[in-house]
Amino acid sequence: MSKTPTMRLDRLLANLGYGSRKEMHGLVAAGEVTLDGVELTDANARIAIGPDLPVRMTIMGHPVDPPPPVVIMLHKPVGVVCSHKEAGRRIYDLLPPRWRVRDPALSSVGRLDKDTSGLLLITDDGGFLHRVISPKRHVPKSYIATLDRPLTGEEGAVFAAGTLMLESEEKPLLPAILEPLSETKARLIIEEGRYHQVRRMFAAVGNHVVDLHRDRIGGLILPDDLEPGAHRVLQAATAELVFAG
Ligand code: URA
Q1: Which of 38, 100, 189, 220 has the fewest CB atoms within 10 Å of its CB?
Q2: Residue 198 in contact with ligand 1 by CB distance below 6 A
């Protein structure tokens, strides 16, 4: 049986972004941290860290943030960027500010471009991230594309062929599944994550994507009640649905 990992309380809280270790000593001394309903008095004490920590520990009267490893589902709105390098409002600005200084750091699992909305996962778990984006896993990602022009009826065969070459690329795309939803709307399921892939696929068949939304990764579906800009911490079993698609 694997032993539950432990960490010093001051370090745990500092790593979760609540402040410096010195500040955490101050918070504990002020009676602001409880475990199982009891005020903690020793910031040097080792604490068992498990997924149930937020239901057991409070800090300043609120449940403590989930400890690593964590997987967060974000409904990315249009107009925010995933990369630290790009200018503009970032996905991390939609999360509590202290999460920006968590250690280990949070990163997005792949990217959605600025003009794409929908399901985006954010994690501090490198193993999970690599399992999702690994080309070997073929995790299907589902997008709803709204198009400038009506579908011709030929796109499905072109995308399914596994021979489509995008401009300035050396390898053809893997087969993808197109499901028309209306004259100008379609679901496209792809297993890769090439740069602006969906927009470039429709451009390659003479169309133009005017709106793009990702609604699924594997078997994980963006819930209707998660508003654009809102996020949710996932239970480990829910995050694993990604591999059940
Ligand atoms: N394909 C795109 O064109 N954009 C995205 O954000 C994701 C897939």
Answers
A1: 38
A2: yes
C-beta of 196 in contact with ligand 1 (< 6 A): yes
**Ligand 1 mean position, distance from CA 52 (Å):** 35
Q: Considering only the top CATH level, what class is 6-63?
A: alpha beta
CB 87 within 8 A of CB 79: no
Is 112 a pocket residue for ligand 1 (Cβ < 6 Å)? yes
pTM of the model: 0.96
What would the pLDDT profile of 20-36 be if each residue is shown by its tens digit?
999 999 999 999 999 99
DSSP sequence for 165-177: PPTT-SSPPPP-E
Task: Please determine, looking at this structure, whether the domain spanning 71-135+226-244 carries the CATH number 3.40.50.720.
Answer: no
113 part of the active site: yes
Contact 24, 14 (CB under 8 A): yes
Q: What is the pLDDT of residues 165-179, one digit of tens each?
A: 999 899 999 999 999
- Domain residue spans of the chain: 6-63, 71-135+226-244, 141-217
Q: Which CATH number fits domain 141-217: 3.30.360.10, 3.30.70.1890, 3.40.190.10, 3.30.70.1560?
A: 3.30.70.1560
